[in-house]
Specification:
The strands form four sheets. Strands 10, 11, 12, 13, 16, 17, 18, 19, 20, 21 and 22 form an eleven-stranded mixed beta sheet that branches. The radius of gyration is 35 Å and the shape is elongated. With 923 residues, the chain is of the alpha+beta class. The chain has four domains: 15-67 and 161-249, Calcium-transporting ATPase, cytoplasmic transduction domain A (Distorted Sandwich); 261-328 and 704-916, Calcium-transporting ATPase, transmembrane domain, CATH 1.20.1110; 335-360 and 557-692, 3-Layer(aba) Sandwich (Rossmann fold), CATH 3.40.50; 365-554, 3-Layer(aba) Sandwich (Calcium-transporting ATPase, cytoplasmic domain N). The protein contains 29 helices and 28 strands.
C-alpha cells in the first residue's frame, strides 16, 4: 500500500497544467486515493470538524461551477415544431393542398394550408407545455446532501456541493460528487453503475496504491454510486463534469425520450385507424366516381375524410394528460419519476405500505424508559421525567442518566440551533427523539463527545438490528449499543442494577422480552440500550453486553390514514402493512388506522415467511389474505410482492432504506419516502412522497385512474364524432344523393368540434365515483368491445340527425342545395358539441357529473360556437366554406335535430344504469 508517491510531483496541480480540453476542476487534484486523508484535507485547507466557511464555498463555486452533469436536454421549441410536420396526417393534408393547387383552386389550397398551420400550432403549444411541466417536475426532484460547514451540519441541494466540502454519509445515500473518505465504518458501496461490479465493495479511509484502477480505489467514493451499508465522512474532490461519471456523460449523445406504454397503445390505435380509414374512404371515392360525381370533388372529399376521421392528436393529448396529471400529483406531494407510472397507478390493486412515517406521523417522542431500577415517564412538551407520578431529576438518578448518555452517544443525529435558539434535529426522527430526551436531561451530544470522543462506529445493519459506537473514556473504551430488544438481549450477559451488575440469564431475558411486548402492544416502538467497557477498539461490540433497559417511543397514527384506507377498500384496493417493527406494535397501529378491527388480527412474522417458490397453494392464499406483516426484512418484501403479482394484482410498495431498493424496483409502482427515505430508495422508485403520507398514495392512485379515464373519454369522443362524418358522406355517396357536407367543411369541423372539446376532456377533474370501482386490469385496452359498439352507435345517431336535417331542409323546406348543406353542416357540428355531455359515466347524475363540472368543457363549447358563428356570418369565411346563414325555420331544424343524439344518449345511459347498475361504454 503506497502512502506517499515519493519523488512524484505534488498531487495538487493548477488548472493551467491540465491536459487541453479537461473540464474545469478535473485536474485540480490528482490521485487523491494514494494520499492520506489528512494530506487531502490540508490540500483543500479544510478541517474535518469545521468544514468550509461561506467565503470558501463561494470561492470554490466560482472556480468549479455547480455540481451538475450534462443531462439529456429536453426537446427544444424548434424540435417540437419540426416534429409537428412528421405526422402522417400532415402529409395527407399537404397532398390535399397540392391537389388543390394543381386544380388551380387557390382558395381551397390556401384553406388547407391554414388548417395545417392551425393543427401545427395546437400540437406545438400543447407539447411545449408538457415539456415545461416535465422540466418543473425535474427541478422538484433534485436530491440533497448533508454537509458540515462552519462547524454545523446542514442539508443542501446536491447541486451546491463544491470541492472541499465535508459530506456526512449514511447507508442508503446516493453519492452526488467524487469524494475522498476521511473516516468510514463498515462501509460498502454499490459501484455497479460505474464499474459494472454487481457485488458491493468495502471502503476504507486508508490510502491505496497510486496505480490502483478505479474499481480498486477503496478510499474513494464516486458520483452516481450508492451506499449499501455503513457510515462515514468524506471530502469532495470533484463535482459535475469533473467527476468520473461526468467524464462519461460528457461523451454520451442526446437520447430520445422514452415512450410510455399508454402512448405506444395510442400510437398503435392511430396507425390501425389510418389504414382502416384509408380503406373505407378509398371505397367511398370509388363509388362516388363510378356514380358520376366530379373526380376533383370526390378526391378532395376522400382526403378531407381521411384527415378528419383519424384522431391525429392522440399522442399530443395523451402527453398533456399524463404531464398535467403528474403536475397535479406533485402539488399533492407525490413526485412521479416516470410517465409510465401514471398509467400503472390507475390499475393498482394492492398497496404494501410501511408503518413508520407512512401510516404514522413520524413524530417520534420518547414516552417510557423502563430500567431494572424503575420505570420512568417522559413528557416531551414540558421536558419533565416522572417516576411513580412524581418529577425526578435525571442528573441525580445514575441509572437513568447512564441510559440517556448511551442513547445520545449511540446516535447519528445532529442538532443545530436555529429559529431564535430553538434546536432542530437533522437526521432520523427516532434518533432525534433520543437526543430530545437527552437534551431535556441536560445532556448535549457535542459536550458528551468532547468528554468521550467517538473513535469508531459500527453502523446499523438490518441483519444484526443493532448499532454501536466506541468512545474513549477514562483510559479505556466505552461501547454504546442500541437496537431491537430481542437482538440486544440475545447478546447481553449482565444487567445493570443499582449496586453494579447482575447476571441476566434466560429467565431474565424472557421477563424483559415480556416487558418489551407489553410496551409494543401499546403501539410504542421499543429500543434496547446496552453498554460495556473494553480495552481496545477492535473488540466485537456485540459480545457480553450489559443490559441497561428499554426505551418506548410513541409515533401517533396519521389522522387521515383511516379515511385513506377506507377509500382504498371502496376502490377494491387491498392495503397490506409490511413493517420491520414488532408484531404487537404493528397490530396496534393497524387497528388504530382501520386496517383491521380484530383485536387478535393475524400477523405473519418475517421468520414465518416462505419464499414464493417454496409456498404451498394454501400458504400463498394465507399470505394473500394477511394484512399485517411484521419483523419483515427487505429481502422478504420481494416474496410478498411476488405472491400478489402471481395472483394478477398490480402492486405498489413503499420503502425508505437502501435495502428496500430491490423491492421498489420489483413492484409495479415503487414508492419512496421523500422526508425519511434514502437517496438510493428515491432513485429506485417510480414515485416519491414528499410528505411520506399514506393518503398521498391514495391521491396518486385516484389521479392515475382519472387520467386513464380522461384519455379514454377523449378517444371515445373523437372516434364517435369522426365515425359520424364518414357515415354521413358514405350514406350520401352510396345513395347517390347530394353530399350533405363539403371537403372544407369537414376540415373546419375537424378543427372546431374535435380539438377543443377533446382537450377539455383530457384535462378534466375526473369522475367523483372513480374510487368506487374495482381496479382495472393492467393490460386492459383503451377501448373495449362494448365501447367500440358504443362508438358506432353514437356515430350512427349523429349521422341520422344530420341526414334528417339535410333531408328536411332539401325536401320539405325546399331550400337550395347550399342552404341545405349549411343546415346539415351546422346540425353535425352542434350535435358533436352536445355529444361531449354523453361522455359522463353512468354512475354520475344527469347534471351533477364531471363533464358539467369541468370548466374547460364550457370554455371549449363557447369557443367552438363563436368559431361557428364567425364562419357563418363573416362574409369572406362564409364564401370560403360555402355557407348560407339559415332562416328561422332552418335554425329550428338545426337545434332540434342536433339535440337528438344527446337526448337519446342520455336516455339510453339512464336505462342501462337502471337495469345493469354498472358503468360500461364511454366510462
Amino acid at each position: 500500500m503506497t502512502r506517499n508517491p515519493g519523488n512524484r510531483r505534488d498531487l495538487l496541480i493548477p488548472q493551467s497544467e491540465a491536459e487541453p480540453g479537461t473540464p474545469p476542476g478535473a485536474a485540480s487534484f490528482q490521485c487523491p486515493w494514494a494520499r492520506t486523508a489528512d494530506d487531502v484535507l490540508r490540500a483543500f485547507d479544510v478541517a474535518q470538524q469545521r468544514g468550509l466557511d461561506s467565503d470558501g464555498v463561494q470561492r470554490q463555486r466560482r472556480q468549479f461551477g455547480p455540481n451538475r452533469l450534462r443531462r439529456t436536454q429536453p426537446r427544444s421549441a424548434w424540435r417540437i415544431l419540426s416534429d409537428q410536420f412528421k405526422s402522417l396526417m400532415v402529409v395527407l393534408l399537404a397532398v390535399a393542398a397540392v391537389v388543390a393547387f394543381l386544380m388551380v383552386d387557390w382558395v381551397e389550397a390556401t384553406a388547407i394550408l391554414v388548417v395545417i398551420a392551425i393543427n401545427t400550432a395546437i400540437g406545438f403549444a400543447t407539447e411545449l407545455k408538457a415539456v415545461h411541466s416535465m422540466e418543473a417536475l425535474y427541478r422538484l426532484g433534485q436530491v440533497e446532501a448533508r454537509v458540515r460547514r462552519e462547524g454545523r451540519v446542514r442539508e443542501i441541494p446536491a447541486g451546491e456541493l463544491v470541492p472541499g466540502d465535508i459530506v456526512i454519509i449514511e447507508g442508503g445515500d446516493v453519492i452526488t460528487a467524487d469524494l475522498r473518505l476521511v473516516v468510514a465504518s463498515r462501509m460498502q458501496i454499490d459501484e455497479s453503475a460505474l464499474t459494472g461490479e454487481s457485488v458491493p465493495v468495502d471502503k476504507s479511509a486508508e490510502p491505496v496504491a497510486l496505480e490502483a484502477p478505479l474499481a480498486e480505489r477503496a478510499s474513494m467514493l464516486y458520483k452516481g454510486t450508492a451506499v449499501t451499508r455503513g457510515s462515514g465522512e468524506a471530502v469532495v474532490i470533484a463535482t459535475g463534469l469533473a467527476s468520473e461519471l461526468g467524464k462519461i456523460t460528457a461523451l454520451v449523445s442526446e437520447t430520445d425520450a422514452a415512450v410510455t406504454p399508454l402512448e405506444r397503445r395510442l400510437e398503435y390505435l392511430g396507425r390501425r385507424l389510418i389504414w382502416v380509414t384509408l380503406g373505407i374512404v378509398g371505397v367511398l371515392f370509388g363509388i362516388g366516381v363510378l356514380t358520376g360525381r366530379e373526380f376533383a370533388i370526390m378526391l378532395e372529399t376522400a382526403i378531407a375524410l381521411s384527415v378528419a376521421t383519424v384522431p391525429e392528436g392522440l399522442p399530443v393529448v395523451a402527453t398533456i394528460a399524463l404531464a398535467r396529471g403528474m403536475w397535479r400529483m406533485a402539488q399533492h406531494n407525490a413526485l412521479i419519476h416516470r410517465l409510465s407510472a401514471v398509467e400503472t397507478l390507475g390499475a393498482t390493486g394492492v398497496i404494501c405500505t410501511d408503518k413508520t412515517g407512512t401510516l404514522t406521523e413520524n413524530r417520534m417522542q420518547v414516552v417510557h424508559i423502563t430500567l431494572p431500577s424503575a420505570d420512568f415517564t417522559f413528557h416531551h412538551a414540558s421536558g419533565v421525567f416522572e417516576k411513580d407520578g412524581n418529577p425526578v431529576d435525571p442528573g441525580k438518578d445514575a441509572a437513568l442518566r447512564e441510559a440517556l448518555e448511551i442513547a445520545v452517544l449511540c446516535n447519528n443525529a445532529e442538532w443545530n440551533p436555529e429559529n431564535g435558539g430553538e434546536a432542530r434535529a437533522v437526521h432520523d426522527p427516532m434518533e432525534a427523539a433520543l437526543l430530545a430526551a437527552g437534551f431535556a436531561a441536560g445532556l448535549r451530544r457535542g459536550e458528551l463527545l468532547q468528554a468521550q470522543p467517538e473513535v469508531h462506529e459500527e453502523a446499523f445493519d438490518s441483519e444484526t438490528k443493532m448499532m454501536a459506537t466506541f468512545h474513549q473514556w477514562e483510559g479505556r473504551y466505552r461501547v454504546a449499543v442500541k437496537g431491537a430488544p430481542e437482538a440486544v438481549l440475545a447478546d447481553c450477559m449482565h444487567l445493570r442494577v443499582p449496586d453494579g451488575e447482575d447476571s441476566l440469564g434466560e429467565d431474565g431475558r424472557k421477563r424483559w422480552l415480556e416487558r418489551n411486548h407489553a410496551l409494543a402492544a401499546e403501539g410504542l416502538r421499543v429500543l434496547a440500550l446496552a453498554t460495556k467497557e473494553v480495552p481496545g477498539r477492535d473488540t466485537d461490540p456485540y459480545r457480553k453486553l450489559v443490559f441497561l433497559g428499554l426505551v418506548g417511543l410513541a409515533d401517533p397514527p396519521r389522522r387521515e390514514a383511516r379515511e385513506a384506507i377506507a377509500e382504498c377498500r371502496s376502490a377494491g384496493i387491498d392495503v397490506v402493512m409490511v413493517t420491520g417493527d414488532q408484531p404487537a406494535t404493528a397490530r396496534y397501529i393497524a387497528r388504530a388506522v382501520g386496517l383491521t378491527d380484530e383485536p387478535d388480527a393475524q400477523v405473519i412474522s418475517g421468520a414465518d415467511i416462505l419464499p414464493p417458490d417454496k409456498c404451498s397453494e394454501n400458504e400463498r392464499k394465507r399470505q394473500q389474505r394477511t394484512r399485517i406483516f411484521a419483523r419483515v426484512s427487505p429481502a422478504q418484501k420481494l416474496g410478498i410482492i411476488a405472491i400478489h403479482q402471481r395472483a394478477g394484482s398490480v402492486v405498489a410498495m413503499t420503502g425508505d432504506g437502501v435495502n428496500d431498493a430491490p423491492a421498489l424496483k420489483k413492484a409495479d409502482i415503487g414508492v419512496a419516502m421523500g422526508q425519511r427515505g434514502t437517496q438510493v430508495a428515491r432513485e429506485a422508485a417510480d414515485m416519491v412522497l414528499t410528505d411520506d403520507a399514506f393518503g398521498t398514495i391514495v391521491l396518486a392512485v385516484r389521479q392515475g385512474r382519472i387520467i386513464f379515464d380522461n384519455i379514454r373519454k377523449f378517444v371515445f369522443y373523437l372516434l364517435s364524432c369522426n365515425v359520424s362524418e364518414v357515415m354521413l358522406v358514405g350514406v350520401a355517396t352510396i345513395a347517390n344523393a347530394p353530399l350533405p357536407i363539403l371537403p372544407l367543411q369537414i376540415l373546419f369541423l375537424n378543427l372546431v368540434t374535435d380539438v377543443f372539446p377533446a382537450l377539455a376532456l383530457g384535462v378534466g377533474p375526473g369522475d367523483p365515483h372513480v374510487m368506487q370501482r374495482k381496479p382495472r386490469p393492467s393490460d386492459e385496452p383503451i377501448l373495449e368491445r362494448s365501447q367500440w359498439a358504443a362508438i358506432a352507435g353514437y356515430g350512427a345517431l349523429i349521422t341520422v340527425a344530420a341526414l334528417g336535417a339535410f333531408s328536411l331542409a332539401l325536401l320539405w323546406l325546399r331550400l337550395s342545395t347550399a342552404a341545405a348543406v349549411t343546415v346539415s353542416f351546422l346540425t353535425l357540428a352542434m350535435a358533436q358539441l352536445w355529444h361531449v355531455f354523453n361522455m359522463r359515466s353512468r354512475e354520475s347524475g344527469l347534471l351533477a357529473n364531471d363533464i358539467v363540472r369541468n370548466p374547460w368543457v364550457w370554455v371549449a363549447l363557447a369557443l367552438c360556437i363563436a368559431l361557428l358563428a364567425a364562419a357563418l356570418y363573416t362574409p369572406h369565411l362564409a364564401r370560403l366554406l360555402s355557407l348560407v346563414p339559415p332562416d328561422r325555420r332552418g335554425w329550428g331544424i338545426i337545434l332540434t335535430f342536433s339535440a337528438l343524439p344527446l337526448l337519446l344518449g342520455q336516455t339510453l345511459k339512464l336505462a342501462l344504469a337502471h337495469n345493469q347498475g354498472k358503468s360500461v361504454g364511454s366510462r
